[in-house]
């Protein structure tokens, strides 16, 4: 166990990639996913208590770098995240992230952590939590269009939270599908590798799209979508990137996280600015209907929102004492006199000379 001083305000617990993997493996991937989903559910139900703003994005030809902040009045959190599709060509991740939690009362950070792995976990947990409210009852099969870094987490989240056992896979790169099948071979799924998107969606109760290209795309066309399915569209996450043909949206009841952000980044950027959508927290608190009949097409236009990262960060912080997988960083200056920062520096110089 590493130094375990969670209550020393001058030392900030830091969770490295290695620590994160140890935490996930110690608790269990599916247990982490269900745990994060519980925190998400609780935070969505108190949605109105949070500060909310669309993420602050810096776009370039290569990709995007974003900051995602929020606060519930007691705790402040933010995530730094990028999206660079061409990184894969040089062996880098297309998405990387880190996050911070801080006390609102003092402004002191109380957690610094990697969030590349944690983002994959929270995205999958969010998808499955949403599907609890929108997917057809008794759903057991899911098409996974896009078998990259997010796909295994999505599959395990839907298995642990909804009981999905049958998977139909498609990716433009067969190596990604092969990778997925290897990773999930002993996880209790019946897996079918498909050669087209059309084949993948046939008979599926839920359709998840999670592709990486930052462009307008038509991964699914209207003729592929039958009545009664739930679409988990999580690949679109920035201006100029979509996965679904506009006609699918016209046939669907659309559910979003935070409407102002989704209109900029989601599938609904294709639609008129007043196209009707429902925010998920309204469904979860009984203020709006979710799935109302067996033939309804429900569409989660998921772009990822800061409150979801906040939930994941809260969950992680609550696991540190029990797992001990973190280290303390000396990040906060602590002079004997809070007004004498310069004196602290000079005393350090004198100590070095001794």
Automatic annotation (TrEMBL):
A family per Pfam: OCD_Mu_crystall
Top-level taxon of the source organism: Bacteria
Keyword check for Transferase: no
Transmembrane region(s): none
Classification via InterPro entries: NAD(P)-bd_dom_sf, ODC_Mu_crystall, ODC_N
Matches recorded under Gene3D superfamilies: NAD(P)-binding Rossmann-like Domain (3.40.50.720), ornithine cyclodeaminase, domain 1 (3.30.1780.10)
Annotated EC: 4.3.1.12
Secretion signal span: none
Record-level Gene Ontology MF annotations: ornithine cyclodeaminase activity
Keywords: Lyase
Keyword Lyase: yes
Xref: PANTHER family: KETIMINE REDUCTASE MU-CRYSTALLIN
Protein name, per record: Ornithine cyclodeaminase
Organism name: Paremcibacter congregatus
């Amino acid at each position: 166990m590493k130094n375990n001083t969670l209550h020393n305000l001058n030392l900030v617990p830091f969770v490295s990639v290695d620590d994160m993997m140890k935490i996930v493996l110690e608790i269990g991937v599916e247990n982490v996913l269900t745990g994060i989903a519980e925190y998400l559910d609780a935070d969505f139900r108190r949605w109105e208590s949070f500060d909310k703003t669309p993420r602050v994005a810096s776009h370039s030809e290569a990709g995007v770098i974003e900051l995602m902040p929020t606060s519930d009045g007691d705790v402040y959190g933010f995530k730094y995240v990028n999206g660079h599709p061409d990184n894969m060509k040089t062996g880098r991740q297309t998405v990387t992230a880190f996050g911070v939690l801080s006390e609102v009362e003092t402004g002191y950070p109380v957690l610094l952590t990697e969030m590349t792995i944690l983002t994959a976990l929270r995205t999958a947990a969010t998808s499955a939590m949403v599907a609890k409210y929108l997917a057809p009852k008794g759903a057991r099969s899911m098409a996974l269009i896009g078998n990259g870094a997010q796909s295994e987490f999505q599959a395990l989240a839907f298995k642990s939270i909804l009981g999905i056992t049958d998977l139909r896979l498609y990716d433009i790169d067969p190596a990604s599908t092969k990778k997925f099948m290897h990773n999930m071979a002993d996880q209790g799924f019946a897996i079918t590798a498909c050669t087209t998107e059309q084949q993948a969606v046939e008979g599926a109760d839920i359709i998840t799209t999670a592709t990486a290209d930052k462009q307008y795309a038509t991964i699914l066309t209207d003729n592929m979508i039958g009545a009664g399915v739930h679409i988990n569209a999580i690949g679109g996450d920035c201006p100029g990137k979509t996965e679904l043909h506009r006609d699918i949206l016209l046939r669907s009841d659309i559910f979003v996280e935070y409407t102002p952000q989704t209109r900029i980044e989601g599938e609904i950027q294709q639609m008129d600015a007043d196209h009707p959508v429902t925010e998920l927290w309204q469904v979860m608190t009984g203020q709006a209907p979710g799935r109302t009949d067996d033939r309804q097409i429900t569409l989660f236009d998921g772009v990822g929102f800061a409150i979801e990262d906040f939930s994941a960060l809260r969950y992680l912080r609550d696991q540190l004492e029990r797992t001990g997988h973190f280290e303390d960083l000396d990040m906060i200056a602590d002079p004997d006199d809070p007004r004498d920062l310069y004196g602290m520096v000079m005393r350090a110089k004198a100590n070095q000379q001794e």
